[in-house]
């Protein structure tokens, strides 16, 4: 009798290398670093990405092409917002310098988690303090509305 190779199921605890890339290149790539550990269904990966992991065996290596908008939803123009400098100072370092393209972490309203926004534009400095009065952030996932390549190597399944 041969032992069966473990397969990924909902709730599986996984050790894996993975890469998420859009048309502009990699967003996440663990292949050159230590592998990721996560629990399937805990929200660490998008449902569309998790769906592709189900049924894979330990040791599997696979690449998936996920259609535009399926992995991280469509881009939502309402998720691009100006944030006043005063509010940014309340949520973090009042002397923080922001640069276009930089990704900034924000606390969730309940204080238990974080979400990210990418700096798109710096507002004017009308009060002359050397800081923009507001910063335009894009809170969409960087791969929202884009075709995504998902590559995975399943190292271990518990």
Word description of this protein:
The protein is mostly beta strands. It is built from two helices and nine strands; from the N terminus they run E-E-E-H-E-E-H-E-E-E-E. The strands form two sheets. Strands 1, 2, 3, 4 and 9 form a five-stranded antiparallel beta sheet that branches. The relative contact order is 0.29. The mean pLDDT is 92.
Comma- or semicolon-separated keywords:
158 residues, mainly beta, 2 helices, four-stranded antiparallel beta sheet, five-stranded antiparallel beta sheet
Q: What is the C-alpha radius of gyration, as a whole number of Å?
A: 19 Å
* Helix content bin: under 10%
How many β-strands, per DSSP?
9
Mean pLDDT: 92
Mass-distribution shape: elongated
For the largest beta-sheet, the strand count, sense and barrel status come to: 5 strands, antiparallel
Low-pLDDT segments: none
- Based on secondary structure, the structural category is mainly beta
Number of helical runs?
A: 2
C-alpha termini separation: 21 Å
How much strand content do the residues show? 35-45%
Along the chain, the helix and strand elements come as: EEEHEEHEEEE
Offer a quick outline of the entry.
By secondary structure, the protein is mostly beta strands.
List the helices and strands and how they pair.
Blueprint: E1 13-22, E2 25-29, E3 36-39, H1 47-53, E4 61-66, E5 80-84, H2 85-91, E6 103-107, E7 114-122, E8 134-138, E9 148-157
């Amino acid at each position: 009798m041969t032992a069966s190779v473990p397969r990924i199921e909902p709730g599986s605890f996984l050790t894996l290398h993975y890469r998420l890339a859009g048309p502009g290149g990699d967003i996440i790539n663990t292949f050159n670093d230590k592998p990721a550990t996560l629990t399937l269904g805990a929200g660490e990966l998008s449902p569309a990405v998790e769906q592709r992991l189900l049924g894979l065996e330990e040791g599997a290596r696979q690449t998936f092409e996920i259609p535009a908008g399926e992995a991280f939803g469509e881009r939502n123009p309402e998720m691009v917002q100006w944030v006043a400098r005063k509010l940014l100072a309340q949520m973090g370092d009042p002397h923080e310098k922001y640069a276009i393209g930089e990704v900034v972490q924000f606390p969730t309203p309940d204080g238990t988690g974080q979400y990210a926004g990418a700096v798109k534009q710096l507002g004017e400095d009308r009060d002359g303090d050397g800081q923009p009065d507001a910063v335009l952030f894009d809170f969409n996932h960087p791969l929202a509305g884009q075709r995504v390549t998902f590559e995975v190597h399943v190292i271990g399944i518990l």
